[in-house]
Amino acid sequence: MGSSQRKKSRDTVRERDRVPGETTARQAQERAFLVGIDVRVRRTAKGAVTAQAAVARDASALRQEKALAGADGKPSIPQFDAEESLSELRALAESAGAEVVGEILQRRDRPDPATLIGAGKLEEIAGAAASADADVLLFDHDLSPSQQRNIEKIVDRRVIDRTQLILDIFARHARTREGQLQVELAQLQYMLPRLAGRGVEMSQLGGGIGTRGPGETQLETDRRKIARRMRNVEGQIENVRRIRAQQRSRRESAPVATVALVGYTNAGKSTLFNALTKAGVLSSSRMFATLDPTIRGVDLPSKRKVLLSDTVGFIRSLPHTLVSAFRATLEEVQRASLILHVSDASSRLSAEQDAQVEIVLKELEADNRPRLRVMNKVDLLDVEVAASLLADAARESGAAKGRAGHGVPTVYVSAIEGTGLDRLLERIDQMIEEDPVSRVKLLLPQSEGKLLALLEAKARIYSRKYKDGSVELEVDAPESVVRRVREWVVG
């Protein structure tokens, strides 16, 4: 039989073995059924959470509460309600390329230890998913390995929790080698505790006479392989960190500040980045469209240059493995001279989303960096409301100029329409401390053409007078420029 005939025969076998109705990712979207859970937290008369309710909350929620707890120990972050959380899961599923064919939300006093939502409810969901011909169930909650296996046995479909879904989106959108390595490390860390119980191929070898094996189970072999791969990936990421540190060291040797964009996913960071830098990076309404960091130069009104860094968006319950894996990328945020916290002014959840960003900044130990709040998408607000906000922001900017300790300043913009960008650049200019600007008077010979050209390019000229073969100038110039014309300073 020729090679072409053998290939045709193998393809025929694969087609015959395929489950009816099954399609590959290339042929059609996967059909996803969403499952949300609302755990009601009961409180005592004194307002303390009961022990039973404390057990009900997942680890990520506890971590969030600790991150933003006030001085009295009480959580100070607003919470997404169950419907809003399920809506966000729907957006995540669409970003992963899935078609949402159904959803269900269950309210419980506490999660079921075995199946999260209870066997009875799971039977109902299994029927609904079968009716919708769903390929996969997406849970808006983190599942333990045993819960995931138990649910899959009952529904007879693939089951993916929130963390695994986010990891899949990151894997789809990573384009650079650095981003792919960081996502792979997070996936391996997620996979490692979930190897146990994956069928008889991972069971213990026989213990009878003649059945004793070489002393290592398939599970142990797989764990060893994953651990070895993790060490290899961590080594490659460490090389990336070293190269990035060298690049940052070269940048920091020059008086050029770095401004980092942070914010909730889909707040419009990449659109704002493009509007300020004309970089043309991908901007999309899909979540996590930007994973790989991009740095571009921006000229401020003072004619100083800053480096603007676009970073990955944050999200509620961002998997800790991703924060750790992307630490090399997010070091740009830790070392930034100024953080632009971009928020979606049109979202009624903007306060909750901002609180989630604060959680990640605390994890990165970057919450004490100078901050400027940028409320984006004012074009989606009512015209009168948007005009009022822009006017208030202009008055605040004028009152705050030159005044310290007034809290985090706010600027309202529309990145897609270009509204408020001039005011944003002015505010950044006021807050950048590197290469400070000062006003000086100069008297230069007209023969110093190079220095005059330097001042035209790098300084703001307020007055210019010609007399006796010299030029008298009054300028606002960065310190790096003043040093070069020091001998011509007068007055």
Highest-level CATH class of the largest domain = Alpha Beta
Counted by DSSP, the helix tally is 17
Quickly count the domains. Answer: 3
Q: Overall mean pLDDT score?
A: 77
Q: Kindly provide the radius of gyration, computed on alpha-carbon positions and rounded to a whole number of angstroms.
A: 29 Å
Low-confidence stretches: 1-27, 42-77, 198-213, 401-406
CATH homologous superfamily annotation of the largest domain? P-loop containing nucleotide triphosphate hydrolases
CATH fold name of the largest domain: Rossmann fold
Proportion of residues in extended strands? 15-25%
Binned, the helix content reads 40-55%
Tell me the major beta sheet: 6 strands, mixed
Assign the structural class, choosing from mainly alpha, mainly beta, alpha/beta, alpha+beta, or little secondary structure.
alpha/beta
Tell me what the CATH architecture of the largest domain is. 3-Layer(aba) Sandwich
Distance between termini? 96 Å
Tally of strands: 14
Q: How do the strands line up in the largest sheet?
A: 6-7-5-8-9-10
What are the defining features of this structure?
alpha/beta; Rossmann fold; 6-stranded mixed beta sheet; 4-stranded parallel beta sheet
